[in-house]
Amino acid sequence: MTIADPAPALEGNPAVHHTACTLDCPDSCSLEVEVEDGRVTKVRAAPPEVAHPLTAGFICSKVGRISRHLYGEDRLLHPALREGAKGDGDFRPISWDDAIDLIVERMAEAKTTLGGESVLPLSYGGSNGLLTQDTADAILFRRFGASQLARTVCAAPSTAAALGLYGKMAGVALEDYEHAELAIVWGANPSSTGIHLVPILRAARARGGKLVVVDPRRTPLAKQADLHLQPRPGTDLCLALALHRELFRRGDADREFLAEHATGVDELRRRAEPWTFERAAEVTGVPVRDITRCYELYSTSSPAVIRCGWGVERNRNGGSAVAAVLALPAVAGKFKVRAGGYTMSNGAAFRNVGWREPSPGTRIVNMNHIGRVLTDPNAISGPPVQVLFVYNANPLATLPNQELVRRGLEREDLFTVVFDQVMTDTAAWADLVLPATTFLEHDDLAMGYGAMVLHDTKPVAQPVGEARSNLRVFGELADRLGLLRDDDPRSEAEWRQAVLGGSRQRRLADEGLVLPETGRRPIQFVDVFPHTADRKVHLCPPSLETESARGLYAFHAELGEGRYPLALISPSVPQTVSSTFGQLRPGQVPLEMHPEDAAARGLGRDKPRVRVFNDYGEVRCHVRLNRDLKPGVALLPKGVWARSTESGTNACALAPDTLTDIGAGACFNDARVEVEALSDVSVRRPDIRPPEDGRSDCDASGARTRQPGAGRP
């Protein structure tokens, strides 16, 4: 793992700069950027002599065309205050001084009348840089006494599972996959996100290695695989437990490794015992012969590595499913060799990086329940939310139970600030919008969570319009509210020093050295070990056992399949990073269905317009037939904006706001829907009340809007 400073501009060409991408992707690509008169004109992969080895040579098309995002008509150019009705997108420009004054006034008023917890910051990974989140913003909101946000819309169940089993342990370096005799890509689609793994897997196959893909779709990588397993959404747990059962039953479990390095072995074996290949096949829809073939490949191959993706977690069994997948290399004895073990998030390689503002002990709001919290005073203890500050996120396009979220944003008594680069779907419902810089326009630290690299980046282009960085805006707000202390970081340089963790980390960054804790390509159980108290794998950790209502590894069957027979998935796609760049998608986004499912509903070429619906909401769009889907599974992409469907809704309008078994994560892939030809049904506003199906385990218009300050600068 390296910490790399950006190289200087190429000699003789001062318009060429080197930096790195901070967007929410595992690869953290090294970039070469051409700039003319302060504006980005071209972005490409940095050359090998200055690039991180994983990403040298090519980058994704999204970032390659980022100038459309930087200088497009949706870019926010100045602060703006709402004038019309919420949701109309009718704003008038105001100065930054007036905007800061207004925010300070509203936050102070809310604290005086209802307490600090009536202010709620809402953010996720829209920036993903280490300086742009959990730094000055943490000082502002935590010292103010605001409600805290549980960022659980993604990676919460998988993080809980990985921490419970292994503590915080770095995984197999993606570059090492080339040496694997077998690679299993489980619930990930690197063709859409993490694209640099694809040529590495191809190189491994060219060397004679095998590839297994586990995904309900026949992804581009699945089409190249030696074996493709297509489980029904929500059933990965059953498949993983069946593999465990067979490892124990046939004597292929590594008893010597387990005795030395693991706890909970007998309990995992007991819980896997009911899952025969036949039972797993019945529940998952994967033929016994394919499960058997997967087992044979995995049990006999070394090195064997599992790339566990975040698709595994997006359902009611998600935490247990991830835990069962991550436990496989321990039981099968796949560690202690290069390219043997697992990879999930390699952010664990940086253990001492980040700012640690103490928790104020205020209430915690699960972001998957934002709709409930904003609309129901009884959904959470304490005062109602009166000030909502959205940054690094587009919640209306990305959170479950979309229509309930929309209803919350409609509240006239809710003061909503949206701090973003472009006029998002959420920003149209704001009272105040603030223009933010992009990663090409501000200082940052870009940490890969696939690539083991930390880039120290500097701005390479002039900020568009009056855009300001997160550090500057949150720092000024904290200062105006009297929350800063004499020893707090103020400048970008001071913040960089604070986040890197002191002089030692800073020295390593300056010298571009490899961190000695892991190395750039560590071997699990040779160079890195579990960061649990006893340095052992906890196959049945008590913390996860008590968190799961039915116990870890307990399978929860789907409810309501008869009424809504299709499982809807909403995976990542090459066009967006979550919802980032969603404004650039041309035309309408279709619902994808298997031809058998479409034919059963009388849908053909003469009836392309459909209504996709359930008790949470509906989406009206076109339909496209896709034989690469498993029958019974439909697909609407992740991160779709209102302008990309007829109804102005997306898959989140159909996603339940119920929670995963551990980690309190989102259950997007538990969405069950029906599809009808649009011409055969009356169009109605969806009923946004949660369905009364017993799944809840918590107590707690589509027209394009007029944008403020739109246009090229």
Provide a descriptive summary of the structure in words:
Residues 1-12, 503-518 and 681-713 have low confidence and may be disordered. The protein is of the alpha/beta class and 713 residues long. Strands 6-5-18-17-16-7 form a six-stranded mixed beta sheet, covered by helices on one side. A six-stranded mixed beta sheet has the order 23-25-24-27-22-26. It has a five-stranded parallel beta sheet with strand order 11-10-9-13-14, sandwiched between helices. It is 26% helix and 16% strand. It is globular, with a radius of gyration of 25 Å.
User: How many β-strand stretches?
Assistant: 27
N-to-C CA distance: 39 Å
* Largest sheet report: 6 strands, mixed
Spatial extent as radius of gyration: 25 Å
Shape: globular
Strand order of the largest sheet: 6-5-18-17-16-7
| Helical run tally | 21
Which runs of at least 5 residues are low in confidence (pLDDT < 50)? 1-12, 503-518, 681-713
Helix content: 25-40%
- Beta-strand portion reads 15-25%
What is the structural class?
Answer: alpha/beta
Mean residue pLDDT:
90
